[in-house]
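Q: Hi! First time doing this. I have a protein sequence and I read that you can turn it into a structure. Is that right? Here it is:
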Amino acid sequence: MANIGTSPVLEHHPFDEALKILAFSQINLKDIFAQGASGVGDTQAKVKESLNGKTGVEVIAEAERVKQERKEEEKVQALKEIKELEEKRIKSENARKELSKFQVLRSRFYKEKQKFMGEQPIIEITVKNGTAHPVSRTYFKGILSSAGRSVPWLQESFNYEISGGLEAGEEATWKLAPNMFSAWGNVKAPEDAVLTVEVEQLDGADGNPLFSVKNFSQEDVKRLEKLKQKYGK
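A: Yes, that's right. Below is the predicted 3D structure, encoded as structure tokens:
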């Protein structure tokens, strides 16, 4: 067993915590998974070696050094992630400006009674391509809500592949029929509910995205906010 030198009487809890920190600092999961029991043995040997000859005070001091080193590494990684998320946010904001040029002039949601199959949900939408690019597919977020209600009846994304595309400056009206077993088919909204539609992404003539806000999600927004609060950037 490792020889830990004598030291003044210490509180049990800080010393135990220090031992745990130093033990975990020596763990290499890759080696343990690869080597099995021998990997665990190697880890135990490393822990004993790191503690050999140290007093209790020195063990606690070493654990504190490891903690600070770990915090610095976490901060470096967090700042890197903040930078990446900020870049995504800026791209999303620039994309939103371009997407606003693809106008939704009119939108309506209702259900048509079918002879044998119940009700078919219908989304009617009129758009105008005010961008400088031909568009082959559009991605939308539809929000079905009623005046005076803070919670919408439905908030759901949908997309539409445009046959022949929509050239710059062109206008079109589409009558889309979502699956009647989808959220659009299941929603129970009053007849006076209003459908508002936001453009989330446009694909170009080659099928690749022209502009998109989908790459910076609400989870990204929350993550960026938490990281900036914690690391003060």
